[in-house]
Amino acid sequence: MRVALLVFLAGCGAKTPPPAPARGTLPPLPEVDGPPTPWAQMSHDDRKQYMMRTVRPTMSKLFRSYDPVRFADFGCHTCHGRDLNEVNHRMPNHLPKLWPTGTPEQRRTVEEHPQIVKFMFSRVRPTMRDLLGLDDYDPETEEGFGCFSCHPRGDRP
Q1: Residue 156 falls inside a structural domain
Q2: Each residue's pLDDT tens digit, 90-149
Q3: Residue 16 reports pLDDT greater than 90
Q4: Domain of residue 126, residue span
Q5: Cβ 141 vs Cβ 120: under 8 Å
Q6: What is the pTM of this model?
Q7: What's residue 92's pLDDT?
Q8: How buried is 9 (Cβ within 10 angstroms: 0-12 exposed, 13-18 middle, 19+ buried)?
Q9: Number of domains in the chain
Q10: Backbone angles phi, psi at 147, to 5 degrees
């Protein structure tokens, strides 16, 4: 009887959950849609609601799946800074300065922080771009969504 019960329970999907990914492992790229209205046409209140209802939960899950310890307290302040209300959520704000591709400073950043750079470039950047419904950054026109949409440029005051 016990053997039959164990076999029955094993067949009912009582499976061990898969192990959590190791910290720093790249999570899958989430499938997301852009806002219902183009970002540039949204009012401040509409942007705020979209950020709270769609962007924050999506990005929180993405960051926490990359490093649940470092990003345990993920929230609006993670990107917009603790002074987000004082600066009216302006970006870029407090995030680390980044440097244009090919500069010695940019190469040093990639060498010193390869995992987070890979995560930011291959997961965060495209997810935010798609959530905002924007095109990729074009260095010639300096338009579109890219690293400098959130991070200050180190080569500019």
Answers
A1: no
A2: 887 789 999 999 999 999 999 999 999 999 999 999 999 999 999 999 989 989 999 999
A3: no
A4: 39-149
A5: no
A6: 0.80
A7: 79
A8: exposed
A9: 1
A10: -55, -40
Q: In three state form, how does the secondary structure of 18-54 look?
A: CCCCCCCCCCCCCCCCCCCCCHHHCCHHHHHHHHHHH
The pLDDT of residue 24 is: 62
Residue 10 within a domain: no
Q: What is the DSSP letter of 113?
A: -
H helix runs in the chain, sequence order: 2-11, 44-50, 56-66, 76-80, 104-112, 114-119, 125-132
Q: Is residue 26 part of a domain?
A: no
Say how far apart CA 59 and CA 97 lie, in whole Å. Answer: 20
Tokens representing 17 are: 């959950």
Which residue type is seen at 123? R
Q: Is there a contact between 81 and 89 (Cβ–Cβ < 8 Å)?
A: no
Residue 115 within any structural domain of the chain: yes
